[in-house]
Specification:
Elements (H helix, E strand, L loop, with lengths): L1 E3 L4 E3 L3 H8 L5 E5 L2 E5 L1 H7 L1 E6 L1 H12 L6 H13 L7 E3 L7 H9 E9 L4 E8 L6 E4 L12 E4 L13 E4 L2 E4 L4 H12 L5 H17 L10
Parallel strand pairs: 10-12
Antiparallel strand pairs: 1-2, 3-4, 3-6, 5-8, 7-8, 9-10, 11-12
């Protein structure tokens, strides 16, 4: 596919070219210092990390700001609702306003960033995730949704290394809008990590086996209280 106009001629038949051009376009709505702005994926990568918030209060505030012209931010509305002391927003410096795009943007973001911190705010029924730029080592194995077999499946994130999180988490896993997050130390995660170490995830068949196991885990296990809240 080639897109043409008087100003440029770009061949989008090459996916690498498409991704590179996509990363240059300001398509990502973020909040920084309580100011909403569109930036590119390249800008986001330069920043090194971002946060996502999952809760109904955040969703409602975000929808409201889409409908009205206002200089307000979601963060400022949440501070007004809960007060500075109880808002639990300290440290959330770069906030991604739209968590999921369900297209190539998601693919690029999840390839470039990985979960680095998890914060749970029970009284707001809220899950905060910090995503850091991937360095040399990956702390998570990600198994995307199996679109070919299971239309109702979810992506699965398997924690591979020990990490210190903002919150003390007593669950085997958490259900997020991104998928099932299986945490280190649980019997389920240990079993899958052992399979990852024994199989070759670069092999299509082995990867499919692991994806199906993660699908079955998502179907059979109520991972946490968040399963019923989001």
């Amino acid at each position: 596919m080639t897109r043409r106009n008087a100003g440029f001629n770009v061949d989008f038949s090459n996916k690498d070219i498409l991704i590179r051009k996509l990363c240059e376009i300001p398509t990502i709505l973020i909040e920084k210092e309580e100011s909403r702005q569109f930036i590119s994926i390249d800008n986001l990568k330069d920043g090194g990390h971002f946060w996502t918030i999952e809760c109904e209060a955040f969703n409602s505030a975000n929808r409201l700001l889409k409908e009205i012209k206002s200089s307000r931010s979601v963060v400022s509305i949440l501070r007004d609702l809960y007060g500075d002391t109880f808002a639990n927003l300290d440290g959330i410096d770069t906030l991604l306003n739209k968590k999921r795009f369900y297209n190539l943007i998601d693919e690029v973001l999840l390839a470039e960033f990985q979960i680095s911190d998890i914060k749970i705010v029970p009284n707001q029924r809220r899950l905060d995730l910090c995503w850091n730029r991937v360095s040399n080592n990956r702390n998570w194995a990600r198994f995307p949704k199996r679109r070919d077999m299971h239309n109702d499946s979810e992506a699965c994130f398997v924690q591979l290394t020990s990490m210190d999180f903002n919150s003390r988490i007593e669950y085997d896993g958490i259900k997020s809008t991104y998928g099932i997050i299986l945490l280190n130390g649980s019997p389920i995660t240990q079993y899958i990590v052992e399979l990852i170490n024994s199989l070759n995830i670069s092999n299509e068949d082995d990867f499919a086996i692991l994806s199906d196991i993660c699908y079955l885990v998502g179907c059979s296990v109520s991972c946490s209280v968040f399963s019923s809240l989001f």
